[in-house]
Automatic annotation (TrEMBL):
Organism of origin: Anaeramoeba ignava (Anaerobic marine amoeba)
General function of this protein: Choline transporter.
Membership in a protein family: Belongs to the CTL (choline transporter-like) family.
Highest classification ranks of the organism: Eukaryota, Metamonada, Anaeramoebidae, Anaeramoeba
Localization (cell): Cell membrane; Membrane
GO molecular function, one term: transmembrane transporter activity
Membrane spanning stretches: 34-56, 206-226, 233-253, 281-301, 324-350, 379-405, 478-499, 506-530
Keyword line: Glycoprotein, Membrane, Transmembrane, Transmembrane helix
Topology in the lipid bilayer: Multi-pass membrane protein
Name of the protein described by the UniProt record: Choline transporter-like protein
Chief location: membrane
UniProt superkingdom: Eukaryota
Gene Ontology cellular component terms for the protein in this record: plasma membrane
Length: 591
C-alpha cells in the first residue's frame, strides 16, 4: 500500500512542495461525496419507477406501426380501446370503426394526394402505376378490395409496391413499363414519401452499420497499436493520410455530384435530385475543410514536431500496460446497454397516451392524447440518461488515469507524480468544464479527495501552468483528432462504396454519414486511452516541476530528458511571444 501524501492536508491553492516519502497515487482512501452518491442512487430508483409506469401504460407499436384513415393502428387489436371510449360517444355503434387488424401489418395508399390509408396483410405485388396517375378504370386487387368485416370499400387501383417501414411504396424496377410508370409518378412524390424512403434506407442498410462498426473498431485498434510501436512515424503518417483522404473525398464528392446531376436530369426523381444537391453541398464543404486543414497544419507545424515527443512518452506508458487499450470496449458495452434500456423506456413512455374518440364531419376517429405528467416523466428519465452517460465516461477516464498514474510512478522514472482535476463549476463554459473534468478524474484517482476540493486544487494547478497546459494539450488533441477523423473518413468511404452497389437504397448519402459518425464515436472511445495518457503526462510534469526544481540531487525531476526538453521549449517560445507582444500593447495603449 502506498503511503499518504501531505498534499491532502494543504489548501488547494498552495503550490506543491518536495515530499521525501511521496509514492504517487494514494492507497489509503476514504469514501468521498457520499451525499452525491445517495442522490444518484435515489434518482435511479425514480427511473425504475418510471420504467414500471411506462411498461404498464405504453403501447410501443403505436410508434412504428402505421395507421389507417380512421386512426386504427395496423397490426393491433384496436377493439380493446372500446371500453375506454364509451363515455365519449353517443352510441356504442359509433365505435364500430375500431377493428382487429392484428394480421394487417402494412399500410397501403390508394391515391397519392388523398389522405386515405388502409391496413393490408401484404403490399400489392402487381398493378400499373399509370392507371392511378391517370385515374383510369382498373380492377381491384384482392388485397385491398375489402377492409373491415369483409365489407367492400370500393375498387382501388393497385400498383406494384414494396414494404418500407411497413408502408407500401411504389417499386423501383429496371423494366421499361415500370420506368414509365415511375416517371409518371415523379410529380406525385411528396415530402412524406421522401421521408418514408429515407427511413426505409436506414432499415434496408442495417447490416452496413454493423460492417462500419467492425471496421471502425479494427482501424482504431490498428492505429493505437501502430502508434505504440512507431510513435513519431505514425504521427506524420496520420497527417499525410489525413490530407490524402481529404483530397480523395473532395474528388469523389465532385464526381458523384456531376454523375447524380446527370441522372436527376434524366429521371427527374426526388431521390436523385436530393443526392445531387447533397453531393454539391458536401463538395463545397470539403473545399472549405481542405483550406482550413492546410492553414492549421502550417500554423502548428513546429509544435507538431515537438508534440511527437509527448506522443512517444504516452506510448511508453501504454506499452507497460498493453491490455489497457481494450478497456474502452467495456465502456462501449456499458453505453450500449444504457442506450438500449433508455430507448426501450422512452418508447413506452412516448406511446402511453390516453385514447380518445375525435369527431370529424360526423364520424369518429381514434386519437391519442399525451398527458403533461408523462411528458415530465420522459424529461426526468432523459436527464437520468445524460447523467448516467457522463458517469460511465467519467468512470472510464478515472480508471485509465489511475492506471497511467501508477505506471508513471514506478521504477521506470519516466514521470514521478500525477495530478487529476475534477469538474469545474457549472457556471463555466462547456468546453472549459470538459477540459477540467477530464483532468479532474486523474486527481481523484491519485489523492481520493472530495469533488469540490479536487476541482479547486486542479483549477489552481492548471492556472499556475496555464501556458504549458493549454498549448501542449491543444496540439496533442489536434493530432488525436486527425486519427479519429482518419478512421471516420475511411469507414465512410467503405460504407459509401457498399451502399452505392445496393439497388434498394434511394438516399445512400444519409446512411453513409451515419456510418461515418458511428466510426468517429468508436474511434474517440478507443483513442481516449491516449488522450488520458497525454493529459496525465502533462499534469504530471507540471506537478513534478513544482516538487522537484533541481536545486539539489534529491530534487532532480523525474520526467525524461525528452519530455523536459519538449515542455521547456514550448514554455520558452510562449514566453518570448508574450514578451514581444507586451511592448506593442503598451505602445498602442499610449497612443
Amino acid at each position: 500500500m502506498k503511503s499518504s501524501s501531505k498534499v491532502i492536508d494543504k489548501e488547494p491553492t498552495e503550490r506543491f512542495e518536495y515530499e521525501e516519502n511521496f509514492q504517487g497515487p494514494i492507497g489509503d482512501r476514504k469514501y468521498r461525496d457520499v451525499f452525491c452518491l445517495i442522490v444518484f442512487v435515489a434518482f435511479w430508483v425514480g427511473m425504475f419507477i418510471i420504467m414500471a409506469v411506462g411498461f404498464a401504460t405504453g403501447t410501443p407499436k403505436r410508434l412504428y406501426y402505421p395507421k389507417d384513415y380512421r386512426g386504427n393502428i395496423c397490426g393491433m387489436d384496436n377493439t380493446k380501446f372500446k371500453d375506454k371510449l364509451t363515455d365519449e360517444v353517443n352510441n356504442n355503434s359509433d365505435l364500430d370503426f375500431l377493428a382487429d387488424l392484428t394480421k394487417r401489418t402494412r399500410c397501403f395508399f390508394p391515391y397519392f394526394h388523398v389522405d386515405l390509408e388502409f391496413c393490408v396483410e401484404e403490399c400489392p405485388s402487381q398493378g400499373d402505376l399509370e392507371q392511378i396517375i391517370d385515374k383510369g378504370n382498373c380492377n381491384g386487387d384482392p388485397v385491398i378490395t375489402t377492409y373491415v368485416n369483409n365489407d367492400p370499400v370500393g375498387q382501388f387501383c393497385s400498383y406494384k409496391s414494396d414494404s418500407v417501414l411497413r408502408r407500401c411504396l411504389p417499386s423501383i424496377s429496371s423494366s421499361k413499363s415500370d420506368n414509365d410508370a415511375t416517371n409518371a409518378a415523379k410529380d406525385n412524390e411528396d415530402s412524406s414519401t421522401t421521408v418514408a424512403k429515407v427511413m426505409g434506407d436506414f432499415v434496408q442498410s442495417w447490416w452496413v452499420y454493423i460492417v462500419a462498426i467492425f471496421a471502425a473498431v479494427l482501424l482504431s485498434f490498428a492505429w493505437i497499436l501502430l502508434v505504440k510501436k512507431f510513435s513519431g512515424f505514425m504521427v506524420w503518417l496520420t497527417v499525410i493520410l489525413f490530407f490524402i483522404l481529404l483530397a480523395v473525398l473532395t474528388w469523389y464528392f465532385h464526381k458523384q455530384w456531376k454523375d447524380s446531376d446527370t441522372v436527376s436530369n434524366t429521371k427527374k426523381m426526388n431521390s436523385d435530385s436530393l443526392n445531387a444537391k447533397s453531393f454539391k453541398i458536401l463538395f463545397w464543404i470539403m473545399i472549405a475543410v481542405d483550406i482550413l486543414a492546410v492553414i492549421i497544419v502550417i500554423w502548428l507545424y513546429k509544435r507538431i514536431i515537438l508534440a511527437v515527443a509527448l506522443i512517444e512518452e504516452a506510448a511508453t506508458a501504454i506499452k507497460a500496460m498493453p491490455r489497457i487499450v481494450f478497456f474502452p470496449l467495456i465502456t462501449f458495452v456499458l453505453l450500449l446497454i444504457l442506450y438500449a434500456y433508455s430507448i426501450a423506456v422512452a418508447a413506452f413512455l412516448l406511446s402511453s397516451g390516453k385514447p380518445k374518440a375525435e369527431e370529424k364531419n360526423g364520424e369518429y376517429y381514434l386519437e391519442f392524447e399525451n398527458t403533461s405528467a408523462m411528458n415530465y416523466l420522459t424529461i426526468y428519465h432523459f436527464f437520468g440518461l445524460l447523467w448516467t452517460n457522463s458517469y460511465i465516461i467519467a468512470l472510464t477516464q478515472a480508471t485509465i488515469a489511475g492506471a497511467i498514474a501508477s505506471c508513471l510512478n514506478g521504477e521506470n522514472r519516466c514521470v514521478k507524480y500525477c495530478f487529476y482535476c475534477m469538474k469545474c463549476f457549472l457556471a463555466c463554459l462547456h468546453g472549459w468544464m470538459k477540459f477540467i473534468n477530464k483532468n479532474g478524474y486523474i486527481m481523484i484517482a491519485v489523492y481520493g479527495e472530495s469533488f469540490w476540493k479536487s476541482t479547486k486544487r486542479a483549477f489552481h494547478l492548471i492556472s499556475r501552468n496555464i501556458l504549458r497546459v493549454l498549448t501542449v494539450s491543444a496540439v496533442g488533441d489536434f493530432l488525436l483528432f486527425l486519427g479519429k477523423f482518419l478512421v471516420a473518413i475511411a469507414v465512410g468511404i467503405i460504407s459509401l462504396g457498399i451502399l452505392r452497389s445496393m439497388n434498394n437504397i434511394s438516399f445512400y448519402l444519409i446512411p453513409t454519414i451515419l456510418c461515418a459518425v458511428l466510426a468517429y464515436a468508436i474511434a474517440s472511445a478507443f483513442m481516449s486511452v491516449f488522450e488520458m495518457a497525454i493529459d496525465t503526462m502533462l499534469l504530471c510534469f507540471c506537478e513534478d516541476a513544482e516538487r522537484h526544481d533541481g536545486s539539489s540531487p534529491d530534487r532532480e525531476p523525474y520526467a525524461s530528458e525528452r519530455l523536459q526538453k519538449y515542455m521547456n521549449k514550448n514554455k520558452a517560445e510562449l514566453k518570448n511571444q508574450k514578451e514581444e507582444y507586451e511592448p506593442l500593447k503598451s505602445a498602442n495603449d499610449n497612443d
